[in-house]
Amino acid sequence: MGRACQLPASADRRPVCPASGAGGWPASPRIFTTVDTDGQAVGHAEIALIQLDHASASLCRVLVYPAHRGRGLCRPLVTEALRVGFEDIGLRRIDLRVYAFNQAAIRCYRQVGFVQEGMLRQSQKVGGELWDTVRMAILRQEWESSRQTNPAG
């Protein structure tokens, strides 16, 4: 079940994803769809591999649709996914993998507080090529610290 985050976001208006489901957060994916002011979907992200017993999950399938790239939409989308993960679900750690050539995404993830933990060399076979992936993660205390120094996200 998807949730719509209203964009564009600003310091006084961040994207809001209404909570779904009663009785807590089951260990199933949480999908966020980012919409613009006209209600048009412009991107999405997913919190998946939720392990409540370890208080960890993965951020994956983060995508700003090509026609909407370069407008600063990745950062508020990822920031809201992190907020839900840490505040609503109660996670301690959120990790991700991103293709090493995707410098725009890596820059976005670093801006919201993700730290590179390693490089998985030739980890994905795409067509006839082997692509490297970067492993990144953010811990709750790092996220909380970054929110204190930059409350706008």
Q: Estimate the mean pLDDT confidence.
A: 81
Strand fraction equals: 35-45%
The total of beta strands comes to 7
Order of helices and strands: EEEEHEHEEH
Widest β-sheet, arrangement of strands: 1-2-3-4-5-7-6
Question: What does the main sheet amount to?
Answer: 7 strands, mixed
Query: What is the count of DSSP helices, taking H or I runs of 4+ residues?
Result: 3
Helix content: 10-25%
Low-confidence stretches: 1-25
Shape: globular
User: SS-based structural class?
Assistant: alpha/beta
The N- to C-terminal Cα distance equals 25 Å
Radius of gyration: 15 Å
Structure description:
The chain has 153 residues and is α/β, with parallel strands linked by helices. Helix content is 23%, strand content 40%. It is built from three helices and seven strands, in the order ββββαβαββα. It has helices spanning 74-89, 103-111, 140-149, and strands at 2-6, 30-35, 41-51, 56-64, 93-99, 115-126, 129-139. The chain has a seven-stranded mixed beta sheet with strand order 1-2-3-4-5-7-6. A hairpin with a 5-residue loop joins β2 (30-35) and β3 (41-51). The longest helix has 16 residues, at 74-89.
Briefly say what this structure is.
The longest helix has 16 residues.
Task: Give a quick set of tags describing it.
alpha/beta, 7-stranded mixed sheet, 7 strands, about 25% helix, globular
Explain the layout of strands and helices.
Blueprint: E1 2-6, E2 30-35, E3 41-51, E4 56-64, H1 74-89, E5 93-99, H2 103-111, E6 115-126, E7 129-139, H3 140-149
Parallel strand pairs: 1-2, 4-5
Antiparallel strand pairs: 2-3, 3-4, 5-7, 6-7
